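job 3f2a | input accepted
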Amino acid sequence: MAALLLPMGCATVPGNAPEPKTASSAPLLTRFHLTGRLAADDGEHRFATAFSWSHTPSRAELSLFSPTGQTLARLTLEDGNATLATAEGERHETDAATLLEPLLGFAPPPLPALTAWVQGDPGPVPDRIERDESGRPYRVWHSGWIVTFDSWQDARPRRLTIERGAARLVLLIDGWSSEP
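job 3f2a | predicted structure (180 res):
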């Protein structure tokens, strides 16, 4: 876990200064599949798991795995409904955050913003952006969340740290595909 916490330098864009030229980033995908690892910490509880996330315009599915590869939970979003399947059964809600909060220990970031962040985009209407020397987002403030793009692989983020108060979510993305 210590390797996940290595910081990286950044360049700040002052309020009235023009933003540096943006690096050529990959366009936002409406269909993708990614795999990786995540760690959640709320200051009292810690949770770490491997994950798989498939996303299309009409459906998203997030699976969380045990260290041995067994599925711990599967969150499915479709037709405005969220379903969380675990060993204890299924729960249904209209809001995915309500289902994920008990697993993470805190309410997760909004899905539209998270979908943009994992693709290296500052997301919808960020409050503030700091960019790195290449013009890519380094740190983004969005509705109380602070997202740090800790490392990149090609045009996509490799590691992100997402924080709000004591809540901290670290995503390490291992694999990307443009097809879910």
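job 3f2a | Residues 24 and 101 are 35 Å apart (CA to CA).
job 3f2a | closed
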